[in-house]
Amino acid sequence: MSGATAVGDWSVVGQLADLRWLSFDDVQTIDSVDFVLRLGALQRFYATGNTKVADGRVAQLGSHPVLRTIGLAQSRRHDATAAEIRKRLGGFRPF
């Protein structure tokens, strides 16, 4: 999703059970990444550019059972950095 700033509720994406790669680039704000935890096949997640997670709770991504790669825009509101989450995921693991 690049530049899709008019979408208000991204949680519907959580219904795409077979989704393996999800990238938000310059979408301004995602309310929460809670829906990402429901994406059981997701291996790569990016929220980059000017994309911010409104509730700041991104550390929970480190408990995703399949996620291998993560990229996050820097934000003082986030409760963890991408590097901290990568450590919880076991570091970068190429496919």
TrEMBL record:
Tree of life domain: Bacteria
Protein name in the entry: Uncharacterized protein
Classification of source organism: Bacteria, Bacillati, Actinomycetota, Actinomycetes, Micromonosporales
